[in-house]
Design brief:
Elements (H helix, E strand, L loop, with lengths): L2 H13 L15 E2 L14 H17 L2 H9 L1 E4 L2 E10 L7 E7 L9 H13 L7 E6 L14 H15 L2 E11 L1 H12 L6 E5 L16 E6 L7 H19 L4 E6 L13 E5 L2 H7 L4 E5 L2 H5 L10 E5 L11 E2 L2 E2 L8 E7 L4 E7 L5 E5 L10 E5 L2 E5 L5 H11 L8 E5 L1
Helix pairs in contact: 2-10
């Protein structure tokens, strides 16, 4: 475990100074052994089939749900008092592992009437799709006519539902889900991408503003940042460059944080990132920001071309979870293979596992309540004792795969890559 990574990131979040290292006391936690599943125990030798059976059972029931049928037929989802309308286009022949999914968010935001946002939504239905060769393309309408149209509290559970629907009904590959947006949609990429990063293979943010969101949760999620050279309203141009430099520092010191930053030469808020044609961008973002160096080169800025390089790893060997960057309106409480109720909304958890050593390592700082570690046979060998180490406190457990955990996690995410057979509570 790279403990320096954890503490340096905690310090960067608290004082806004990436790349600095500050040691801190870790929290005191106790690892609890799960109860014996008894009649719900699963045979460790048949877990592949058990997982497939659980997914097929869930999928059959979900597809028979009247709400799903109505909302996918009408392309309108309801949560509380809001609706999210969406447009779907299926493009090209389906790849063997399923279609990639591109969720696109329009510009606009706050306006006296919904007409402008409707126009922006209509434009986004074609903006990134005209040059797309293969995929399920979904253009979403912001849920309210507010500046944060794409990330009102109700938006987050609706995005969870949208992804689930597309996996179930459009043969989408869950490991190739991409999020892109322009202007207010770029704001949405920052907000949604950081709070739901484990849902996405990669992100593209064009001409938006981060509004102060921290990006620690993008450790495993690539992002392309774009802004025009002269887009100085809300300092979108310079803030985009500054966030790119922050990610540069994170990546240089700790690895991860894959990203690319494009400042478009001689452009304001708008530029043509809707096609794969090379267009001029600054060669050196740092030199442009600090010294006004306008040297430029031609680059393909088309978001799908950047994002298509990446496929999500749903079970990466090490992860970081910034619990202060969450959306507590979501029904999903998990993050990769960690889980915590939404009453836990501060601190950072860093976790890693080694199947070769049947070992799980967890470091926390500032976490103010219990959380869980979710495990499956791809992460550990259930036929052998599993060692769990939390903040240097070690516990060896004999874990028995539990049918109830498998069914609960299957339904929790609606994603066959996030099925687990054991849950270890850490208090």
């Amino acid at each position: 475990m790279k403990k320096q990574l954890l503490f340096a990131l905690i310090y960067a979040v608290s004082v806004g100074a990436a790349g600095m290292t500050a040691m801190a006391d870790t929290d005191a936690f106790h690892v609890e052994a799960p109860e014996d599943p008894g009649e719900y125990a699963l045979d460790a030798d048949t877990l592949d089939q058990e997982r497939l059976d659980a997914w097929n059972t869930y999928r059959e029931a979900a597809l028979d749900d009247d709400v799903l049928k109505e909302e996918t037929q009408e392309c309108v989802m309801t949560f509380g008092e809001v609706q999210m309308r969406y447009y779907v286009a299926v493009i090209g022949d389906k790849p063997e592992d399923g279609y990639p999914l591109y969720i696109a968010m329009h510009g606009g935001g706050s306006d006296d009437t919904p007409d402008f946002n409707d126009e922006q939504w209509d434009e986004m239905k074609e903006y990134y799709s005209d040059e797309l060769e293969c995929g399920v393309y979904v253009a979403v309408r912001g849920v309210r006519d507010t500046w944060d149209t794409h990330f009102n509290p109700e938006s987050y559970p609706l995005y969870d539902r949208l992804i689930r629907y597309m996996i179930l009904t459009q043969d989408v590959d869950p490991n190739r889900v991409y999020l892109e947006g322009f202007s207010a949609g770029g704001d949405g990429v920052y907000a949604i991408g950081t709070r739901m990063a484990d849902c996405f293979a990669a992100l593209n943010m064009s001409s938006g503003h981060p509004n102060g969101v921290e990006v620690v949760n993008l450790y495993r999620t690539p992002i392309q940042l774009q802004a025009g050279e002269y887009d100085d309203m809300y300092d979108r141009n310079t803030v985009t460059a500054e966030y790119g430099l922050k990610l540069d520092e994170y990546h240089g010191v700790y690895g991860g944080f894959e990203h690319r930053t494009l400042i478009h030469y001689d452009c304001g808020h708008n530029y043509d990132d809707s096609a794969p044609d090379p267009i001029p961008v600054m060669k050196d973002v740092k030199a442009w920001l600090e010294n006004g160096d306008r040297s430029h080169e031609d680059v393909d800025s088309f978001p799908p071309d950047y994002m298509d390089q990446f496929t999500r790893d749903p079970l990466p060997e090490d992860i970081i979870w910034d619990l202060s960057t969450r959306a507590d309106s979501r029904e999903v409480e998990s993050w990769y293979y960690l889980k915590a109720p939404y009453t836990i909304n501060s601190g950072i958890i860093q976790a890693a596992y080694s199947r070769d050593n049947n070992l799980v390592l967890v470091d926390t700082n500032g976490v103010d309540g219990e959380f869980s570690i979710l495990l499956n046979e791809k992460m550990v060998d259930f036929s052998q004792p599993v060692t769990i180490v939390v903040n240097n406190e070690e516990k060896v457990l004999n874990l028995v795969p539990d049918w109830r955990v498998l069914m609960e996690t299957t339904a929790l995410r609606g994603d066959p890559n996030y099925q687990f057979e054991a849950e270890v509570v850490v208090r």
